[in-house]
Structure formats: structure tokens, C-alpha cells
User: Which sequence fits this backbone?
């Protein structure tokens, strides 16, 4: 069975049934004992009375002075019988026997079995005694009807079974509630984990349930380890970039600017940059990160401070208080940085950075009042390394394709449209 | 003008040094972060070229320490990764501009000159002082539109005076921006060069304040 709840409930059901069945059998056995003891006590009392009234009459014959008064011994075939024998001869018998006689094994015993004249099963008490002056030992046999014993037991067993069933149903309901409540903590843990995946939380809060705390610690440790590995590989990637690009820079400066090698160097540089970025983006999307937008926008404008000032441009920022991006700061820096740099490069008087949350989306619009881009140029602009600004302006040409890749990585897209400012509007549409 | 270059790659450092020398700069070079941090904090520079990927102390750490100690010189960072995280980290630590490897040497020099000009409070790339004008992008000084023929040392002195025109520049201050750390500082030769400059650019532009220093007055001439 796959379901944990199913397994727990099945287990609880099996144990409960076994325990209830055992309880039923044990209690039945005790009741059986109790009921037969009661019947035995009755036959015992009759036997005692018969012994007490035994005597030897004037003809030296065994006789009974009084007979048991219980009316049940008077009803024919009632199953309640008594009989006094001396040797093989019947001295006296109950009226209920009519002409019949009780036969059976000899000796003294309680709880023996026998049958009446009508074939009905009987519970038999037999006692052998000797009395002074009697020639032979005297046997007293008293019986009770087995059917009456069975009847009594049936009358008790039915309510017992009913009570145990009620108890069983109650316990089953209790374990259902217990299993559900217990598993709810697991559901909550699942919700917490989803929050981490969606970037709403960094780590899983410690649950109240002590049994789930070690698991939570392990998951948090795994999250931390993931973050450490990621930052370590990024560090290595940075080192790799540095160790490749520094000699490349030296080589580029060593060669004359019109040397054929310069084209190769430029291509190598682009390839290194491209693959480093791809490697970074292809790595696991770091879970549980969420970063505020405004500080990142401010940081990017800090980097672009001089280019803005040199062109005497203004930046118009619209960003709701406390707006956040579900992902890493590095990715957001790359998105805003590349788009804002383009806007500053192409804009004339101003650029605009607008953050909005229509529905459950996060829409970042970065626009300028520059010449804009013809719709036919849009697909070309997205291609890796393609530059529309082949007039000597600086820029690797990778900017837009990096942003498009990052937007896709975060489940969104980059669109290039015409801005109301007149230039290009780069719109990054992401899940909020 | 005097610049500090902190770059661990020998070939690239040598290229930067040569190119800056050629552009008329006095250059000090540090091969690692620790030395670079010490030099930047103890000597006077007009600009620092700081590689971020340094052995020992990282470029960001060097820059942070400089800024914490109140070192205000403009700093141009050299980054290999070229991603925005690097740039943002550099600017937050106090960088003024960046160049992404592999860069062109003339671009780095141009950016360094722009930083020096801005730090001196000039927003245009051509700084005018009376009849003199300095094109900070080309590194050319003209008088009434015709280029002056100056030696590298003369250019260094005159461009410093043009950047800081109408302000008394003491000989000590001037020497700090002219000489490399290993060079003996010699006030006599400054006086000789100032004399030669006066002949080349015309009398009355550079005045000597006895006991104080020199002033290049933009209203003179």
C-alpha cells in the first residue's frame, strides 16, 4: 500500500480487531465459567439437601425423609432431574423423570455430561456416599438442562459483542482522527517546503512536532549545502573567467589593433562570457531566495551614475514599496543592469524603470526615449552576440539575449515594444 | 598626473604601465592586494586602476579599506567576469568606473582621464584655463587653438595645474602628483620645468606665490 495514512489505518484496524477478538474470547470464557458455576451451585445445593434427608427406615432400607421443594424438579422433561441409587436399585427420583432413569459413569464428579430420556443434553453432578447401616454405597445424581445454560450464555454474549463493536468503532474513529492529525504536520512541512521552492522563505521553520524536527534540520542543512556548493562553483567560475580573460587582455593589447588575431580574441572573449553565463544559469536555480527590487535598481543606477550624468539624462523610477523578486539578486542585477545600460546608451533625455504587479505577475519595464527598434530587428537583437549598434558604441551585444535567457529561467519572458517615451521598452514579464 | 596600477598579471600590468607612461602619467605598480592597499593609503594618486581578482587581498577588500581610511582618489576597477554583480559590488565598495577584460588600453586611459577630470570638478572633457585648453580625452594641451610641444614631465605639471586652476598648488602637492614612488623628489627641477613652461605658454599664466606655491590663473593672459 502506497499511502502512509492507509498503512497506519490498516495497521490500527488489524491490531484493534485482534485485541477486540481476544477480549471477546476471554470475557466469553469467564462468563461461561460464571454461568456454569451458578448452575453447578444449584445442583450442588439440591444434592446437599438430598444427602441431608437420607436415612435408613425400619425395614433397613435407604429412604428420604424430605424431597427437594424446587418446582422445576416436578416438571416432566424439564432437564432438572435428581435420582438416588443404592447399588443398582433406584431409591427415589424426581417427578420430572417420570419413569425414566439417569445413567452414566460412576464415581463423584461435577460438570459431567449426560442425556435425558428425551435425548436432551444435561449437565450432571454425581456424588457417592456411604452411610452407616447401609449395605451398599449410595449414589446421588442431580442434573441441569444444558439448553438452559446455553440460553443464559446467549443472553449475555449478545450485549457483550455489541459493546465490543461499539468500543471498536470508537477506537477506529479515534485512530482515524489521530492519523489525520499526525499527518497534517507532514502536510504543513510540505507547504513550508513549497514556500522555500517558490522563494517565499529561505529555510523551513522548525515544526512543533518533535519527530519532524530532525527531518527539518536535515532539509535545512541540505538547503544550506546547496547554497554553499552553488556559491563555491560561482566563485570557481569567476576565477576561471579571471584566469582566462586577463591573459586574453594582455594578448589583445600586444597585437596591433588591425591584426587578424583581434577578431579571434574578440570571439574568444564572447565565447568565454557566454559559456560562463550559461554555466551559471544552467546550474540549479537556487531555492528560497527572494530579493527586494528597489535596492537593486538603486545599485544599478549607482553604476550608471556617470553615463547618466554625462548625457544629462534623468531616470524615472516607479517601484512599489517593498516589491520583491522571487530569485537571486545576481539574476535581478543582470536583468536590470543589462536593460538599463541599453536604455542609457540609446536614450536622449530620460530612461524609465517601472515595476508593477498586474495579477500574479511581476512586470519590469525598462524604457528610453531613444530611436527605438524596428519590429523586424527584434528577433536579431535576441540572438546571442548580435549587436545592432555596430557603429562603434561599446557593448558586447549579449545583453538582451542574457536577459531573455534569465527571464525564461524564471518562468517568464522578455518582450521588446515601443515605449510611450518614444524609444524602446524592454518588458520582462515574470511570475510574481 | 600620477596613477596607481594594482594588477597581478605581469604582462597586462606592463602594458598598462607603458600605455599610461605614454599618456604622460607617473605610475606606481603593485602586484598584489596587500601592497596595493598600502600604497594607495599612504601615497597620493590622481587615479587608481584596480584589478578585482588579486592574489591575497581581493580588489573589493582593497577598495573598501581605502574608502574606510578616507582615501578619496577616483578608482577604476578591472573586472574579468563583467557581470553586474561584480560591477555593483565594486561601486558599492566605492569604485567610480569599470573596464571589463579584455579591454583596450586607450579605453582604460580615457576612462582614467575622465575620472581625474570629474574628481577635479570639471564636467566637460575639454578644460579651459584662459588661453589654454586641455583635451582630457586626447591628452593634448593647446594655447589659442594651437597644440603646445611639451615633454612628458611638462605635460604632467601643466595638466595638473589646469585641472586645479585658480588654486595655490604647493611644491609638495605638485611633487606628489608628478613623481613615482621610487623617484627622488626634487623641488629644484620642478622650478626649472615651471620656468621652461612659462616660456612655452607665455608669461603671466603661472604665478609663483613666495613660500606657498604656484597658481595657474584662468583670468590671466
Assistant:
Amino acid at each position: 500500500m502506497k499511502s502512509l495514512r492507509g498503512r497506519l489505518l490498516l495497521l490500527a484496524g488489524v491490531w484493534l480487531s485482534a485485541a477486540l477478538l481476544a477480549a471477546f474470547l476471554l470475557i466469553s470464557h469467564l462468563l461461561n465459567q460464571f454461568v456454569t458455576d451458578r448452575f453447578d451451585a444449584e445442583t450442588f445445593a439440591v444434592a446437599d439437601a438430598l444427602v441431608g434427608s437420607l436415612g435408613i427406615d425400619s425395614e433397613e432400607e435407604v429412604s428420604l425423609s424430605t424431597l427437594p421443594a424446587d418446582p422445576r424438579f416436578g416438571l416432566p422433561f424439564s432437564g432438572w432431574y435428581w435420582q438416588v441409587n443404592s447399588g443398582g436399585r433406584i431409591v427415589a427420583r424426581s417427578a420430572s423423570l417420570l419413569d425414566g432413569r439417569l445413567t452414566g459413569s460412576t464415581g463423584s464428579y461435577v460438570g459431567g455430561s449426560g442425556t435425558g430420556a428425551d435425548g436432551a443434553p444435561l449437565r450432571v453432578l454425581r456424588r457417592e456416599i456411604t452411610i452407616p447401616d447401609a449395605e451398599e454405597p449410595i449414589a446421588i445424581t442431580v442434573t441441569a438442562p444444558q439448553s438452559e445454560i446455553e440460553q443464559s450464555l446467549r443472553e449475555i454474549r449478545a450485549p457483550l459483542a455489541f459493546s465490543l463493536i461499539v468500543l471498536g468503532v470508537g477506537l477506529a474513529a479515534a485512530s482515524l482522527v489521530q492519523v489525520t492529525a499526525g499527518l497534517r504536520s507532514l502536510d504543513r512541512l510540505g507547504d513550508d517546503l513549497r514556500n522555500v521552492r517558490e522563494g517565499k522563505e529561505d529555510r523551513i521553520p522548525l515544526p512543533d512536532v518533535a519527530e519532524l524536527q530532525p527531518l527539518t534540520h536535515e532539509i535545512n542543512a541540505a538547503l544550506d549545502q546547496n547554497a554553499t556548493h552553488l556559491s563555491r562553483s560561482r566563485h570557481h567560475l569567476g576565477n576561471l573567467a579571471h584566469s582566462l580573460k586577463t591573459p586574453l587582455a594582455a594578448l589583445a593589447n600586444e597585437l596591433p589593433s588591425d591584426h587578424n588575431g583581434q577578431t579571434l580574441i574578440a570571439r574568444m572573449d564572447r565565447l568565454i562570457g557566454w559559456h560562463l553565463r550559461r554555466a551559471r544559469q544552467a546550474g540549479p536555480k537556487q531555492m528560497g531566495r527572494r530579493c527586494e527590487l528597489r535596492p537593486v535598481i538603486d545599485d544599478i543606477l549607482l553604476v550608471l551614475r556617470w553615463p547618466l550624468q554625462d548625457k544629462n539624462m534623468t531616470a524615472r523610477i516607479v517601484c512599489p514599496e517593498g516589491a520583491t523578486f522571487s530569485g537571486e539578486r545576481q539574476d535581478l542585477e543582470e536583468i536590470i543592469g543589462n536593460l538599463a545600460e541599453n536604455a542609457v546608451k540609446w536614450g536622449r533625455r530620460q530612461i524609465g524603470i517601472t515595476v508593477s504587479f498586474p495579477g500574479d505577475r511581476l512586470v519590469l519595464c525598462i524604457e528610453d526615449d531613444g530611436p527605438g527598434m524596428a519590429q523586424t530587428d527584434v528577433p536579431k537583437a535576441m540572438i546571442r552576440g548580435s549587436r545592432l549598434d555596430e557603429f562603434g558604441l561599446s557593448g558586447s551585444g549579449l545583453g538582451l539575449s542574457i536577459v531573455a535567457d534569465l527571464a525564461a529561467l524564471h518562468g517568464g519572458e522578455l518582450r521588446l515594444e515601443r515605449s510611450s517615451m518614444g524609444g524602446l521598452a524592454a518588458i520582462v514579464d515574470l511570475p510574481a | 598626473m600620477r596613477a596607481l596600477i594594482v594588477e597581478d598579471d605581469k604582462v597586462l600590468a606592463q602594458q598598462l604601465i607603458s600605455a599610461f607612461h605614454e599618456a604622460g602619467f607617473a605610475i606606481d605598480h603593485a602586484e598584489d592586494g596587500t601592497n596595493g592597499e598600502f600604497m594607495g593609503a599612504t601615497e597620493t594618486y590622481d587615479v587608481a586602476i584596480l584589478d578585482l581578482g588579486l592574489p591575497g587581498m581581493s580588489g573589493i577588500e582593497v577598495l573598501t579599506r581605502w574608502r574606510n581610511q578616507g582615501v578619496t582618489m577616483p578608482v577604476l576597477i578591472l573586472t574579468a567576469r563583467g557581470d553586474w554583480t561584480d560591477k555593483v559590488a565594486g561601486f558599492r565598495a566605492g569604485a567610480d568606473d569599470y573596464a571589463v577584460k579584455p579591454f583596450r588600453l586607450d579605453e582604460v586611459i580615457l576612462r582614467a582621464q575622465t575620472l581625474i577630470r570629474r574628481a577635479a570638478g570639471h564636467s566637460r572633457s575639454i578644460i579651459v584655463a584662459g588661453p589654454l585648453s586641455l583635451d582630457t580625452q586626447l591628452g593634448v594641451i593647446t594655447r589659442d587653438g594651437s597644440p603646445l610641444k611639451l615633454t612628458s614631465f611638462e605635460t604632467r605639471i601643466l595638466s595638473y595645474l589646469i585641472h586645479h586652476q585658480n588654486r595655490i598648488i604647493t611644491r609638495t602637492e605638485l611633487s606628489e602628483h608628478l613623481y613615482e614612488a621610487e623617484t627622488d623628489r626634487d623641488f629644484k627641477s620642478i622650478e626649472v620645468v615651471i620656468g621652461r613652461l612659462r616660456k612655452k605658454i607665455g608669461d603671466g599664466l603661472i604665478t609663483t606665490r613666495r613660500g606657498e606655491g604656484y597658481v595657474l590663473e584662468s583670468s590671466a593672459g
